[in-house]
Structure formats: C-alpha cells, structure tokens
Amino acid sequence: MNNGLRRIVYDYLIQTRMDAITASYLNALILFVGIVLVVGLLDYIIWKVLRFASVNFARRSSTNFDNFLVVNKVPRYVAHIVPLLLLYELLPLAFLDFEYAEGIVLKTIEILAVILVLLLIRSLLRSIKDYLKTLPHMKDKPLDSYIQVFMIFAWIGGLLTLFAVITDTTIWKFFTALGAASAVILLIFKDTILGLVASIQVSINDMVRIGDWITFEKFGADGNVTEISLATVKVQNFDKTITTIPTYSLISDSFKNWRGMEASGGRRIKRALLLKQKSIKFLTAENIETLKGIQLISKYMETRNTNIDTYNKEHGIDKKIAINGRNLTNLGVFRKYVETYLKNHSAINQTMTLMTRQLPPTSEGIPMEIYAFSSDKRWENYEYIMADIFDHLLAALPYFELEVFELPTSMDVYLDKVRDEKGE
C-alpha cells in the first residue's frame, strides 16, 4: 500500500512533464514531509492522551510516586516511543531510490531512539529518587550518589550503543580498542573513578548520612551534611556557609562524625578547672566544722572525719604537725563536692560515665577535670548546662579556700615582691 502511494505520487509528477530525476527527488521530499507531519500529529495526540490520563490517575491514586513520574516528564518520553517506531518503519519508504540517504535516516532514528531511552531512564531514576526522599527511613541515605552511579552505567551503555550504531561495529570490538587505551582513560577519568569507588564505600560502610554532623578540619567543615553525590559532599556549617568536600576524601582522610553522640543518651562535658597549687592545704578542725555546713557533703564530712580520727588514735598519730597520719585536704573535699553536685544535677545523665579527676600538675596549675554527659544534646542547651555548672563551681571555690590559677600581671609580681620584703 505504501509502495502504491509512492508510485502514484511519482506518476503524477511525471505527468506534469517533470524529468525523472527531479521527480524522484521531489517525490522523496513530499513523502518525507508527509510522513513527518503525520507522525508528528500522532505524537502530539498520544502525548495529550497520556498527559490527561497520567494527571488524572496521579490525582486519584493514594501514592505520590506517580506525581513524581509526571513532574519528571516520564509520560512525555513514553509518548515518543510509538511515533519513533513508526518513523523507523515509514521513512525508509521515502528514500527507496536513495540508498545512501536511507541509511543516514535509519541511523539518525536509531540514535534518537538511544537518546530517548537514556532520557526515559534518567526521568525514571529521578522519580524514584524524589519518591524515596519522601520516606522517613530513606531521608538520611545518599540517594543522589546511588542515582548517579546508575546513570553512569546507563550513559556508558548508551554511548557504546551510539558508537556501535554510527560506526557499524559491534560493542565487543570497541571494548578491544578500549583495553589498549585503558591507561590513558584511567588518567583522564581518575577523579570520576575515585569518586565512584568512594561513593560506593561510603554508602556500604554507612560512614556518612544526610543530616549527620561532621567535622573535617582539613577542609574547614563543621556542620550538617546536606547532600552526598558521586563527586562531592556538601556540608552546611553552623555559620551557614557551605563547604564542598570531595567524596574520596571521606575514605582517604580522617574526619569526625558526631552521629554516635547524637544517637547516645548524652553529650560529653570534658573541661578542667586550673587550680593554684599554693592554695592547696590540709584542713584544720575549724575548716572541717565550717565545711560540715555545706549540705551536699555534710554527711560525707561527718563520716570521713570520724574514720580519720579513729585511725589516727588507734595508731597513736601525733597530730601536733598536720602532715602526720591521715588528713583531709581542701582539694580532696572539693573534688568530692563536685562529684556529689553533678550526681544531683538534673541536666546530667546519671546512667553514663560521671567522674571528677585530678590530672598531672602543669606550669599553669593543677587541672581538676569534670567528665560527664549532659542529657540534652542540643548545642545551645549543652553550652548553657556546661556554663551553669562551671559558674557554680568557680563561685564555690572560695568556700574551700581554693584559687583558680591565672597568669600573673606586672602588678601581681610587684605586690608579691612587696609582701616578701615585709615578710608577709
């Protein structure tokens, strides 16, 4: 039937006293334009029908996956499939007398078909990614990275197919040539390959998720991960700046992920008070009686003082000199006070490690470190809790006749010299 139509057009042109060569060219042109117009109209009709059907179906369905299919133009690309197949079948009829042109037309349609398939795959993958991001248990997964990996394989397959179509060779021959040039290809695509490998390792080992708080000093990153792609990881710092980190750096360099802290029952407080060594002393009986008035340690002071007195009497200790026998020190009692204070603090997680420890003396005094965990892990609340604790402890030091170490000023040095001269 199609050959008959072609013959009718050709005979009509001959009857108009047109020479055979011109008639052949004009016949091919008329048929080409006619087929393209008919197929184009068909493509438009199919698109309108699919669009109407897909939009109405998306509105009525309970899931929102089909909404993402419409947004990412999946129905639009599907509408091109049937018209493209018709072009592949019909257009060669217009060029039966032009074998070379027929080959070019067929290759062009095959190339368009490959491009259409790639666009369709990309739209489907984007729809899947957008849908998965709406699921609560998938929000922190590096979906962009997964999609990019799939798209890389799709583009590689598509490019190999295009190469085979254009050159009229098989894909296997291309792979043979590719092997000979593998060293050059590895050098050119080194960053892409490293990013691909790193992205897979980061995903499999669950090293970083969307929303994780990470600290990467090498790149100046300190904030939450907002995006994980094949080549880069984006971090929004707490000052609202954005730091971009190469994905490969996450497996080649060291960084800190605070997810463990956020998943635990508390956030660590690890800070020390630097105490002046000269302020440390044995407690006298008067000092002990005064400290018994502090409610948090009154019971401890009673029990501990009684035990020490009993021990010294049983062993005949001469207490005319304070260093003899067992004694209480103001630093030891203060350490017990701090520990008791933390155990009674409502903002401290009592189920996690809690201790007050004395670190080795330094040129800047004796560090007395607090090691505990706040129940509230939010940054602003955590800072408030820690400040509140140390405000109290700094204010409590004078009750134990302890002093915080501070680097002396020139005035302090002068006053100390005057006191030494006066023998004070």
Low-pLDDT runs of 5+ residues are none
Provide the domain count: 4
Counting helices, strands and paired strands, the structural category is: alpha+beta
**Average pLDDT score:** 82
Number of helices: 17
Biggest beta-sheet profile = 5 strands, antiparallel
Q: What share of the residues does DSSP label as strand, in percent? A: 5-15%
- Shape type: elongated
By DSSP, the count of extended strands is 8
- What's the helical proportion of residues? 55-70%
Radius of gyration: 41 Å
Order of helices and strands: HHHHHHHHHHEEEEHEHEHHHEEHH
Regarding quaternary structure, what we see is: single chain
Placed side by side, the strands forming the largest sheet appear as 4-3-2-1-5
Distance between the termini: 124 Å
Domain Mechanosensitive ion channel MscS: 191-259
Protein name: Mechanosensitive ion channel
Organism: Arenibacter arenosicollis
InterPro entries: LSM_dom_sf, MscS_beta-dom_sf, MscS_channel_2nd, YbdG
Structure characteristics:
8 strands, MscS_channel_2nd, 59% helix, 11% strand, 3-stranded antiparallel sheet, 424 residues, Alpha-Beta Plaits, transmembrane helix, Mechanosensitive ion channel, single chain, 4 domains, 5-stranded antiparallel sheet, alpha+beta, SH3 type barrels
